[in-house]
Amino acid sequence: MSRTLRPFLACLGFSTLLLAPAPGMSEALLVTQGRAGASLDFRIIIPPVMRVLENSHPTRMDAVAGGDWSAEQRVVVLSNMKRGFCVTLRMTSPDVEAWRLQTEQSGGITLSPVSDGYRVCTPRAGRYTLLLQHDFEATRNATESLRWPVQTDLTAL
After folding, report:
1. The domain spanning residue 148 has which CATH number?
2. Would you report the helix, strand and coil content of the chain in percent, each value rounded to 5?
3. Distance, CA of 126 to CA of 81 (rounded, Å)
4. Closest to 146 measured CA to CA, from 72, 56, 63
5. Does the residue 96 lie in any domain?
6. Can you tell me the distance from the alpha carbon of 89 to that of 115, in angstroms, rounded to the nearest whole number?
7. Which of 64-68, 94-98, 131-135 has the lowest mean pLDDT?
8. Residue 132 domain boundaries
9. Torsion angle, alpha carbons of 121, 124, 125, 130, to 10
């Protein structure tokens, strides 16, 4: 090969590489005529949320005069459920003969007895602080402490 032809072939080879499309451009398309149009359909989906921020109550309760027990439970729930939620409270101890529950029923909160406990319901989404006053009567004249006897469940409406 001659000395003048070698640089020419090298330039021709490099030029070919520059004219070849890069691998990442294989999907690119240039439209020079016609009209381009697109429509977008956005949907914002907010997932349902029910979060218990607090469920505080004593672990054990000491018997008061007459062998009965009394305690306050604080339940704080944050929910975006449109129709609200319910807290179902069920008795889990055979040592309790009778159980009374009281709460402030403001803002549409309802308290109703169910077969094995109580149900506290809210009417709409929001952050709720439920202060529940429990009074328990012992099956016998108890002088010992009682382990917390209430199971708390949350359901959406």
Report:
1. 2.60.40
2. 15, 45, 45
3. 8
4. 63
5. yes
6. 11
7. 64-68
8. 50-156
9. -30
Strand boundaries in 57-149, DSSP class E: 60-61, 69-79, 85-91, 96-103, 110-114, 117-121, 126-138, 146-147
**CA–CA dist 130, 103 (Å, integer):** 7
Instruction: Give 119's pLDDT tier (boundaries 50, 70, 90).
Output: very high
Whether residue 8 is contained in a domain is answered as no
Domain total in the chain: 1
Q: What is the pLDDT of residues 144-155, one digit of tens each?
A: 788 999 999 999
Question: Does residue 26 register a pLDDT over 60?
Answer: no
Question: Does 152 reside within a domain?
Answer: yes
Q: What is the mean pLDDT of residues 13-23?
A: 59
42 inside domain: no
Rg of the chain, C-alpha, whole Å = 36
pTM for the whole structure:
0.68
Whole-number Å distance between alpha carbons of 127 and 51: 9
* Amino acid (1-letter code) at residue 50: M
pLDDT at position 63 over 90: no
Q: How far apart are CA 51 and CA 91, in angstroms?
A: 23
71: tokens are 């305690």
Total Cβ atoms within 10 A of residue 102: 13
